[in-house]
Structures are given as C-alpha cells and as structure tokens.
Amino acid sequence: MSPTPSKKSADAAAAAATATQARSSATGLGGGGGGAGMRLIVPLQGVVQGRGGLVLGTLIPCALFYFLQFYLRRNRSPPPTSPQPPAANGPDLPGIVRSSSRNFLSARGSSGHAAVSSRAASIARSGDSPYFVGTKKCSEDPYHPVDNPDGVIQLGLAENRLSLDLIGDWLARNVTDTLLDERQGGLSISGLATYQPFDGLVELKMAVAEFMGQVMQGSVSFDPSQIIMTAGATPAIEILSFCLADAGNAFLVPSPYYPGYDRNIRWRAGIELIPVPCRSTDNFGLSIPALERAYNQAKMRGVKVRAVLFSNPSNPVGNLLHRETLRDLLDFVTEKGIHVIADEVFAGSTHGTEDFVSMAEVLNTDEFDRSRVHIVYGLSKDLSVPGFRIGLIYSFNEHVIAAASKLARFSSVSVPTQHLLISMLNDTKFITQYIKTNRERLRVMYALLVNGLKQLGVESVKSSGGFYCWTDMSKFMKSYSEKGELELWKEMLNVAKIHLTPGTACHCIEPGWFRLCFTTLTEKDVPVVLERIKRVVDNH
Amino acid sequence: MGLHVDEHSNYNVLSSIATSDGHGENSSYFDGWKAYDNDPFHPIDNPQGVIQMGLAENQLCLDLMQQWIKQNPQASICTGEGVSEFKDVANFQDYHGLPDFRKAIARFMGKARGGGATFDPERIVMSGGATGAQETIAFCLANPGEAFLIPTPYYPGFDRDFRWRTGVQLLPIQCHSFDNFKITEPALVTAYQRAQTANIRVKGILVTNPSNPLGTTLDRETLRTLVSFANEKRIHLVCDEIFSGTVFDKPTYVSVSEIVEEEPYYDRDLIHIVYSLSKDLGVPGFRVGVIYSYNDAVVSCARKMSSFGLVSTQTQHLLASMLGDDDFTTKFLAESRRRLSRRHKYFTAGLHRVDIKCLESNAGLFCWMNLTHLLNEATVEAELKLWRVIIKEVKLNISPGSSFHCSEPGWFRVCFANMDDNTMETALKRIRKFVSPGNHTAAAQAKKKNKRWDAALRLSLPRRFEELSIMTPRLMSPHSPLVQAAN
Questions:
Q1: CA–CA min distance A281, chain B (Å)
Q2: How many angstroms away from the CA of A527 is the closest CA of chain B?
Q3: Residue B204 with chain A: CB contacts under 8 Å
Q4: Could you tell me the domains of chain A?
Q5: The domain defined by B76-330 carries CATH number 3.40.640.10
Q6: Tell me: the pLDDT tens digits for A270-328?
Q7: Which of A298, B267, B376, B480 has a CA that sits 20 to 30 A from residue A321's CA?
Q8: Of B314, B316, B423, which to mutate for an interface test with A (greatest number of A Cβ within 10 Å)?
Q9: CATH number attached to the domain at B28-62+334-434
Q10: Per-residue pLDDT, A176
C-alpha cells in the first residue's frame, strides 16, 4: 500500500504489516491487542485487588490469552476432510482471529490455514440487515393483486416501474432490426464484441451528456470528455472513493443517507463514513454548522476527512438542495481543502414545483475551484433501466478523470447495451416526452400516497424528488428508540406485509422515520397499501 | 483556505491509489504500444504499418457469432421479437444474475472443458470481465500485504488486476525453459519459503491454465501437486481458466474441477476458478467474467461484491439464449478449435522454416517464441533492444518476455488469432525477411548496439532479476497487448 514500493524485502514486509494494520483498524475489524487487553486487565485488577493486584491482574489475562492462543492453534488446522475451515475464523471468535497480531503469527507460517480475507468475513455477516430480511420476504411471497393478494408488498426498493411501458414502446417502434443492422450506425459484430474503450464509447458519452443537460432542463451543459462510464452508479461511487481517499480516511455524509453507501464506500475502499445528522426540525436540510462540527470532531480523532458526499435529490428524504446551500457547501469544502461528491442519480425524477439545481450549474454561475467537484449519475433511476447497469462519474478534476478511466476497466458497461442506449438517447423527441410523462406520473403517485397517509395521520416530509416519501411514524412506536422503530418495522413486515426501509438503516438520528417507495406500485395498489398501514396504525 | 494551509496546501490531493502507477501505464512499454497506435497496419490503406501481434483477441470465429445473432433476433431485446421480454430484463438488478444466464454459463463451462467436469449454476458469480473477477477474488481471499504465489512467466495484467486496489502482492515461482516452463514442486516450495523468510503471509497460488503467455496446459500431475500443496499449507488455489475453450491439440485439457471431483479428500474450499467469455467466445466487448468457487463463503462474498461489476441484463439475456443453444455451442467450439489449430500450425511452421522455435503448445491465442539466438548477450537490455528493432523495423508489435516477468531473456509472446490469413502471411514474410541470412540490416543490427532506439524509446527496466521481486515492476499500458491479453 505504500505509494513508492520499497526495494528491500524487509521494508516491504514492514510496509505490508502496517498496511494490514491500517486496513483492519480502518474497517473496524482490528481486535487490537492493546485496547482489548486493557479492557480485560482493568476489571480483573478489581477482582484480585489487595495483594499485588496490578501484577496478578496483568498475569492472569496474559495466561488466559496464552491458553486461548494455544487452543486456537490446535483447532486451527482441521483435518483435511473438514468441510469448511474458513468458517472457523469467521463468526465464532471474531475479535481474536481477526486481530492483526494473529496475522503476524501466521505470516511466519506457523499455522497455515485458508482464511478468506477479513474484508470478506465482514460482509458475510451482513445478511440479517432489515433490507435483506425484507427483500427476501418479498421475493418469497410477492404481492400480486390477483394471484397473491395476501403477499408482501415491496416498498423498500427504489425502482421505477411507472414508465417502463414508454421505453418498451420505443423499442417496439424503432428497433425492428437486430443489433447487427448495418443501417443503425454501421454496427457489426466486430464493433460489438471486440475490445472497446473501458470507460465507455464516445458516442454514449455524448448521448448521455445531452440527456443530463435535458434532465436538468437545459440549465447547464455537460462535457462528454469529463465523463467516465461505469457499470452502474455503484461502481462509479466506489471508483471515486478509491480516487479521492486512502483507506482509513473519511467522508462526511449528511444523514439520513442511502444505506448502499456503506457497502459502496466502506467495504473495499476502507473509507469511513461519518454521518452528519440532519434534523426533522430543519426539514432534514443540510446544515453547514453540523458539517463543521463533524469535521472538527474527526480532526480531533486524527481522522483525515477527504470529502463531503451527499445525494441531491436526497435519498431517502426526497428534498432538493437549494442553490444557496450548494454555494455554502462549496465554500465549506474550499475552506477545508476537501472534495465534494454530488450523487445526482435522481436528478430527472423530480415531481414537485421546485427546480432541481445541479452542482454543475452552481459551479458555472460562480467562481469556485472546480477541481474538487465530482458528480455521480446513472440511467438506472431516470431512465428506469437498472438492469442495464449504466452509471457515470462526471468530474471537473483531470487527474480524477485520468485515474477513473483506468479503474473503469474493473466495471465496464457491455458494448451491445451501450449501442442500444446510444440510439435511444439520440431520439431527443422521445426522451423529452419520456421525461415529461415520467415526472407527471411520479407527481400523481406521490400525491396519491402522501395524501392517503395524511388521512391516516401519518405525516411525510414535503419532498420534490425521488421515488419515495419520507414519513414520520414515531407516534406509533411503543418506545421512542431504535428498538421501537425496528419493532414497528417488523410489525409492518409481518402483520401489514409491507416492506419499508427503516430510518436506522439510513443512519437517521431520530427514530420512527420510514422510507416508502411508491414507484413499484400501480394506482390500484395504493388503497391496498393504505389499508394495510391502517391496520397497524389503528393498533396503536 | 487561510486557516488550513498547513494541512491542505494541496487542495486536490488524491488517494495513493489514484496517484500511484499501479495501473502500469507509465511504463516505457507504453511508448512501444504507441508505435502501433500511430501507424497501424491496414492491407490497403497502410500496408507498411505495424501489425498488432500483442493482442490476445480471438477473431477467428466472429462470423459464426454474427450468423447466430442474425438468425436469433429474439435474443437481443432491442428487436421487435424480443421486446416482449423487455420489462423483466430492463428492471432486473439482482446480483445473482438471470437464472437462465447462470445455467447457460455453467453448461458452457463444462462443455468448453471437454465435459470432464460439471458446474453448479448456484456457484457462478458474475463480474465485469476476467479483470473484475481477478480483483474480486483477490479482495475476497487476501488482505493488503498478503501474497499469492504465481508461476513466471505470467500475464502482466495480474500486476494491476490482482494488486492495484487490493494491496495484495504477487510473488514469483520461477519456471525455466529447460523444464519447458513447467511448475515444479521444488520451485513452488522455494517460492513459499522465500515468502516466509521475508515474513510475508502467503494466502494462495494463482495459475493460468491454459497458460498465458505459454499456451500450454497443466497436466494432471502438476494440478495434483498444486492442489496437494495448497491443502498441505492451507492456502487457496485460484485457477484462471479463461483460455480453456481454446485447447486445439493433445494433450486433452484437464480443469482443476476434474481433480476436485476425482479426489474427494482434497479440501474443496480452497479451490476457485476464474472464467470469462472474452477468449473462448471472442466477445471481450460483452464484459462477462465469472468466478466459480467451491467455497460457500467466497461465493456469498463475491456475489455481494459483484454489484461493482454487474453484466448488463440485456447482454445476459442475449448470452443466455446463445449459450443455451446446444447445437450452436458444440459447433462453435469445434470450429473455433479447428481454426485455431490451423492458424497455429501455419504460423509455427512458417517460423520453423527460418529456424525460429516456439515452446510447444496446445492452447491459447499466442505462441511463446524463442529468439534467444538473436540476442548478443543474455540480458533484459538485449531483449528489449531486439524488441525495439522488431517494433520499429520489422513493424510487428509483439510482447517481450520481461514484461511477463520471465526469468530468461529472449522470449516473446506473439498473438496469432486477432488477424486474417493475409495479415498473418504478411507478418510471417516480415519475420522471414528479418532473420534471413542475406539480410544484414535487421538481424545483424539487432545484435549490434543500436543507440538510436535508446533515444527514441526510453526503457527503464530495473534490476528485476537480481532482486527478490517482492515488488514486481508495474508494466503495462491500457492498450498494451499485455494488458488486454486476459481481460
């Protein structure tokens, strides 16, 4: 991990060791000999207080630790027939097995065993989060108005099914020939199957830049040369993270935030996410003083903050950032000398009266240092084609563009799909119509759901973007706490058979908030959803 | 900024990954690649241009694929016939992949390997090309600073794919020409012990089978040695089998999965396969890579990581129908082998006539060509000097062995499947002219000190062979033959 590889093996080993340590503590996995040791010693000191407490208090845990090591070593090399040795170092004894000291022991080869990496082990345990539990239930027992009226309704997935028919119609109308049709831009199998630029075809970049400009209602134009295409917004965010920060550095993220960031940024890049709480009293708007506080706290801990990451329109709240806030934010990052990442994947999915303002637009109107500004975008939300995996990085920093174009090889978009989208996006008449119709449908559904909820006594934050509403159900919780929220979430899932995203999953500081996605519903489904929520609400 | 100048004087400070040269593109080989980019061969427009022989791309059977797509318009959803499936496909974003796609891939994997092993669709994990697959498996199996052993010569892209973002190291297992570059147990043990002496934790072995750049396949004994060694040391074995469908000659291909199936007492949890359709099917543009692991924890982890490189559902859909067509895949694999075999024979025979030998091989899209007799001394510098002459004067872009971390100078990888017959003929003519006894310009010049090229192409290949090679130099460019070779 050291930037300049050292020539001597000893240096390399030392660097490697440091890197391991840094990485494991960065991901919060380092059992850490020192800290854990002290936690053991101090209480034991109390037990043996009186005669030589300090000595015994130190000796006893040391002896215990020694025997534990001994025990582990004996059990670490299972017989060859053992079906799953890696499991042995996962969940059972997490603290000790993953400590860096153990890595050094094994480095000498005293006890070989085939562990998966600690990065892998950390994620292997993430299967019981509310999102996974709820989604699993939805896939096992999906709601269908006719076939399965008693099934689970998925309101936890930000996916837009409202306007798929438009895309389908376009395809049926326009593309009557195969992928190989020579008339459609002279496409042939060798232009389709062979190696193409990993960061996206120029034609696609041009078409997407055009689309972005259109989505933002012509208020700003985008330069195709600043675009790096990736296989979805997920790798776009990860690649940016790898470019902007080292493992152990941190990003400030106004919370509640999209739960996927934890996976996209923390997991492999090893970057810490520091939630900066936004409050319901501020309508969950971004507050610069809160950013300032979080920044200073991180600094005091010795953590280097490298960027502010925010979504606009916000996911999960759905509100838009005002021009002034964006300006303040730019002032903030300029003052601190850090980067800013604007996740604008919902830019075209606005449904309110308010206009969306892109970070790029603010940059155009004022004198700011552009090289610290990076935008993440994708077609999964605004064009409702998440399966096609089209995401992008739009950066104003040439070094980031250069590095990202090289990293894009790990997550390139398949070329046939790129060609399909090039011809669709180039039909500007269709795209204009699509954006308009889609917004209208979002508006209708949003109003339908939010008004219905209101009649049940469930209030939502006034929002203008995204596929969801952010609702306050705190008054139906048994206790005003995270536990109360999760109980209510379970009740919604098991009794009402509705899968929602609980606020805690989004690192919301106030309990009782839920995200409801309405774009997978039809208008006929809305009364069903409301009826089911009513069932739970009336119980409280 | 006034307050924070001390800490943030360089505002656009980027990460060490972004600023390091882990991508390998700052290597001098980039200059060599430019020679091709600036002056690419074209039979009519530029018959004197540089011929690309550094790109391991399989273009011999693209006509078969084209024909199939034309005959099966429903497979691509952007046709009238296929549009009815659009809704399900466009919105499908489950990282498990379309069930039909996984089934078809599993079946095709078995078929491409000669049917000796079967593959479970539930163990198929998608990733963005073999590049993404390599990185994902490295992320899954090792922490930064830990190492994988890898037999040399090896595909230089591994230095990037396996190491760059993961921080994992690659330590060479030295293989030699007197053994036909076979992986031997002593070499394996030496490499392992050397890592231990250096206090580096070895997490596994990474091999390519068929080998890139050698074009040879591993025999049963060698595979057994590798699997037993992995079992004995409790380390992983990653087999990159992306060329398994290109085996065009005897001996019959043996996949590590056959060894695993034959010997139940081996621990399956240690075995992982990387596969891709880029080489066997010749569709690198589709970006389909696969991890097949026998370890449940790795399958589950890699699947979650596949969010970072999912294959577009439109492409999944297309390939599910194509690979699901048994007649087509049978015919395609057989025809592809026949054409590769023919091309390989033609090329090696042509070289043989001018006394250039290649390592005997039975797979892959390339030959491992021995030009040691053209070196004036057995050094990397001499090899690179010859390489520059070949690029500049013979006008062939081939890849020098030193970029593959080969321990002996004078070997070159030459790709033969990314061109048509006429181009191949031209390339052979140029080689013949270069080495013919009457030609005192080229071959002889190569032997002499040729200072001119030193000025044009700065090559700074360091003392790699004297060193322990803990930090292997990062060589390769995004467009370099080397890089694209195994994507």
A1: 31
A2: 24
A3: 114
A4: 126-162+433-538 (3.90.1150.10), 194-427 (3.40.640.10)
A5: yes
A6: 999 999 999 999 999 999 999 999 999 999 999 999 999 999 999 999 999 999 999 99
A7: A298
A8: B314
A9: 3.90.1150.10
A10: 52
